[in-house]
Design goal:
Number of strands of chain A: 10
Distance between the termini of chain A: 44 Å
Helix content of chain A: 40-55%
CATH architecture of the largest domain in chain A: 2-Layer Sandwich
CATH class of the largest domain in chain A: Alpha Beta
Largest sheet of chain A: 8 strands, antiparallel
Strand order of the largest sheet of chain A: 2-3-4-5-1-8-10-9
Oligomer: homodimer
Shape of chain A: globular
Order of helices and strands of chain A: HEHEHHEEEHEEEHHEEHHHHHH
Number of domains of chain A: 2
Chain lengths: 355, 355
């Protein structure tokens, strides 16, 4: 696995395919696991961590997967490369910023990511494009079973899997779906949806997890409860609510097309025009403008540029991706100039113009 | 004189040539005159007005000018055509909206305009591109002298020319210079300039005269005092102050280029991009964006589009011009759509793109 190759591509979850991919960006499941023989990461000594990392790395290498997972030694990466993996959603901010031995094993097309010595000894993650929780579950369950044959997980008959933070105890599972909800935001109905989700114990977050603002109108919806329910129950609870949100977003889009088509068209065209012409652009503004462009493509208002290109631009304009693409480290102001230049180049290749 | 031909062209004052034309749009002088034999317009009976109009029309027709002035009977015009002449600065709002017999005689390239039965019986106006008050004065003085040989103006040896409103008594002259001052606005120094001008009894107004906001960063600077000074004194007072304002604007532009070049470039490019891509656009926003584009061209930031084109767009996107160009009457929302469409077409012809 060569990080340079990551820079110029985008992974499975950005392919823009899969079920309901006009609204559902990706489905993701992660499992928190710990080795029974060691203290949790936050109580482990440096020596313990070295042993944990060595053991898990070796066990992961032996997994009978085709192709094999590529193991990356995180402390050996530059700050920029770590940030790249965070932006790519392949490692957590915690793993990027932690101390001591730690790593990540990545599967083909970035669908699988196994983090070692994160908050838990092992965090398994599977990501799929579109609304595909069942497929993600089937993938991750298989990897988890294969690993469980080779290591002894910390497990309690009463509680289930034991984890460093009590909020993960039980299944250790967080299943989440990333939605693009620009019409609900424009129609000012998004808060209502959130309140409804919170009542049924589902959490709503921005693109980059807890505390991050919902840039680009991307929202992650995930389960909060991990204990006292089976994985399949948790999965079915979230799987059942997503189609309702998709319906709300579709209705909001149709209402916008019916009652505010002109101003929607204007919003989309201006967003595209600004992306094609600005010479300074923050990451935040880029996300907001790309969100309007993405909505416009899905509603047939804007042509000649594809959803995968837009999805890719969301990632390629993030700070680390941008610096990797430019081949140099850049301060904030330089990034804003480079980001605008990159967007102009990419969009002119696409060549869309409103009529 | 065919009003249709006006629709597709722009007059002398928008040619964008003449001295200091990067900052000075136009120089204008108007003289207020009344016939000694009749009461002022506001006291005149319908019968009087008919006589005044007939007499002045006949005298104007006999002026030995080459080419002859074209006389337009204003009550015979549609509301849209009257508005067109207002936007073109060839007649005043007052003349457009008044009752009774009235007219305007227009000279070649719209440099000369003689209004009959405005607030005064006769308003003479000469407009020149760029900073050319002396040339404007020489033109208007000639026409005024020629008329004075044919009619008897209301004149007092003590006060000078008598006018319907006391603020015009004396010379009856208002000389004004239209400036484009975007850098002083961006640098928030414009108020300071205004206060200085007010102290020396010069008035500052927006593009369309009293009470109009300074859309597009256009400012008209004119004399307030008409009494007790000769025309040449009044002219020299305003002629002397304009170069100072030009210098201030140039300094503000250079400071912007030196200290804020990146954000200026971004502002100009975004303005251009928005004009090329929006599908709804108010007249107000158009003026503001064109102002940034005009500044960008003058600073060499934006190429492939010329100042005369931008000047023309300022006028062609005004409500009446736009409707005449589209060949149909349009409500506000329809105008915003038509304006955006027109701008996209015109700017794509120009084809400028930031690098």
């Amino acid at each position: 696995m060569n990080l340079e190759s990551l820079t110029h591509t985008s992974g499975e979850w950005l392919r823009g395919t899969g079920p309901e991919s006009d609204i559902v960006i990706s489905s993701r499941i992660r499992l928190a696991r710990n080795l029974a023989a060691f203290p949790f990461t936050n109580r482990a000594t440096a020596h313990h961590k070295t042993e944990i990392e060595a053991m898990l790395r070796e066990r992961i290498a032996k997994l009978e997967l085709d192709p094999k997972l590529a193991y990356i030694n995180v402390p050996g990466l530059s700050t920029l490369d770590r940030q790249l993996l965070v932006e790519r959603q392949l490692i957590s901010r915690e793993l990027a910023g932690a101390d001591g031995p730690r790593g990540v094993a990545l599967g083909p097309r970035e669908t699988v990511s196994l983090m070692v010595n994160e908050e838990d000894h092992l965090r398994l993650q599977v990501m799929r494009s579109g609304f595909a929780l069942d497929e993600a579950w089937s993938d991750i369950d298989k990897v988890d079973d294969m690993l469980e044959q080779r290591v002894s997980y910390a497990f309690s008959d009463e509680f289930g899997y034991l984890t460093a933070c009590p909020t993960n105890v039980g299944t250790g599972m967080r299943s989440s779906v990333m939605l693009h909800l620009p019409a609900l935001v424009l129609a000012k109905q998004i808060e209502k949806v959130f309140r409804a989700l919170q009542k049924i114990n589902l959490a709503v977050r921005g693109l980059y997890g807890e505390g991050s603002r919902a840039s680009g109108d991307f929202y992650q919806i995930s389960n909060q409860v991990t204990l006292g329910k089976s994985e399949t129950t948790i999965l079915s609870e979230i799987r059942e609510v997503i189609p309702q949100i998709i319906t709300y977003e579709r209705q909001a889009r149709q209402t916008l097309m019916r009652e505010g088509r002109q101003s929607l068209q204007d919003r989309v065209s201006r967003a595209y025009g600004t992306l094609c012409s600005a010479t300074m652009m923050t990451s935040e503004e880029t996300m907001d403008l790309l969100s309007s462009v993405r909505l416009g493509i899905n509603l047939g208002i804007l042509e000649d540029i594809t959803i995968p290109t837009v999805n890719e631009l969301f990632i390629h304009t993030q700070p680390a991706h941008l610096q990797k693409l430019m081949g140099t480290s850049l301060d904030g102001e330089e990034r804003n100039a480079a980001r605008a230049r990159y967007l102009r180049q990419r969009l002119r290749e696409g060549g869309a113009h409103p009529n």
